[in-house]
What we know:
- This protein is an alpha+beta fold.
- The chain has helices spanning 28-36, 39-43, 53-65, 93-96, 116-132, 146-154; strands spanning 9-13, 16-22, 69-76, 79-89, 99-107, 136-139.
Amino acid sequence: MLDALPLPQPLESRIGTALLRRATVDDTDAVITLLADDPISAARGDVASDEDRPAYARGLVEILAEPSNDLLVVELDGTIVGTLQLTSIPGMARRGARRLLVEAVRVQSSLRSSGIGSAVMRWVGEAAAPAVGATMVQLTSDAARTDAHRFYERLGYVGSHRGFKYSVPQG
């Protein structure tokens, strides 16, 4: 986990104060539910099936055991309503710049446009990135997520690169 992150952190939104904190293994089911709540994730297999739970639990344990990774959750009135993964990446490019990679950002579908996602992403740029020594925050977003692209652009993110993925054959 990224020990330097200033957590837990209260976040103000239009619907009240939420709490951003590090995920624990007890949060596995809530995170799975958030992933399945997203149609693009669901189409890729994140459907919250019971038989997949051990794989998700293993993934969460691995993330939290890795010093350069963290999984965070957002609680509102005791319920987990958001999540994201952060990875601190040292680099050679840009004069040895460190980057903070943001992945799997999810806010419960019924709470989108509530200000929770904006508060989380502002915290990433204003608090998390400096805490880990990152000079840049980067993320990828599925090409089909046009609403998300507008959201990130409103927050100052620039669509400067084109990403590529390769699915490794499983066998």
